[in-house]
Amino acid sequence: MSNSSYSIQIPPNLGARLRVLDRLIQIPQTLGEYGDLLQEYIKKCLKEPQLKAYFQEIYKGKKIFGQVDYKTRHRVWIPSGRQVYVACTLDALIEGFFLPIEIDSSCFHCDQQIRIKVSQGTIDFMEPSSTVMWLGASKEGEGPCITTLCPYTNFFTSSGHVDEWRDKNANELGIMLTLHQSLELARKGYWEPLHLLKSETIQT
User: Fold this and answer.
1) What pTM was computed for the model?
2) How far apart are the first and last CA of the chain?
3) How far, CA to CA in Å, does 173 sit from each of 134, 135, 140, 176?
4) Rounded to whole angstroms, how far apart are CA atoms 136 and 118?
5) C-alpha pair distances (Å), 32 with each of 24, 85, 118
6) DSSP 3-state of 87
7) pLDDT in tens, 123-151
8) Does 77 have pLDDT greater than 70?
9) C-alpha–C-alpha distance, residues 134 and 164, integer Å
């Protein structure tokens, strides 16, 4: 993760929620620290046989990261032509490290279509070019990420639309990130620890 992204400050109230909901060992102070803590958590998950097997299926392309069996705002297309819905924007970006994908989503403020192509963790195409991500969390309660984090993490067509949305939702927890910063978080927090499965997956 670049020094500039690493130093991005996470609002204290958001950091406190992320620690609880992501089961982190401490409150992340910066975006880079959040990525480091997520990576340590994923490494621990890989010690559990069932979760390790699940992540290996993702690595082999048999499952899609964050795939859900209901309609969401975020649809992912993979090279075979198959399309699936994923729980949140970050899930979609993470999958872009495993397979070349096209993300079909919409702005959380105005519903305008957003299209993004990602391959090997790099953005190949983005429309609108001003698209950003809001990394958010529920303000209270506990439960699985699919209900406490995913619905609160979305794409917006621009930082201006984030500002307009926040004017009406001032109490929402979150932070705006560029797609480059979002991909760095996906790389550090998820792809790097899951990439450790490569040699084992090839052997199986």
Assistant:
1) 0.91
2) 31
3) 10, 8, 10, 10
4) 22
5) 14, 28, 22
6) coil
7) 999 999 999 999 999 998 888 899 999 99
8) yes
9) 13
At 203 the pLDDT is 46
Inform me whether the pLDDT recorded for 10 exceeds 90.
Answer: yes
Q: Is the peptide bond before 12 cis (omega within 30 degrees of 0)?
A: no
CA distances from 80 to 12, 76, 122 (A): 42, 12, 20
Residue 55 has pLDDT above 70, yes or no: yes
Domain assignments of the chain as residue spans, ordered by start? 3-203
Report how far residue 41's alpha carbon sits from residue 203's, in angstroms, rounded to the nearest whole number: 25
DSSP 155-199: EES-HHHHHHHHHH-TT-EEEEEEHHHHHHHHIIIIIHHHGGGHH
Contact 31, 25 (CB under 8 A): no
How would CATH label the architecture of 3-203? Answer: 2-Layer Sandwich (3.30)
Phi, psi of 130 (to 5 degrees): -90, 5
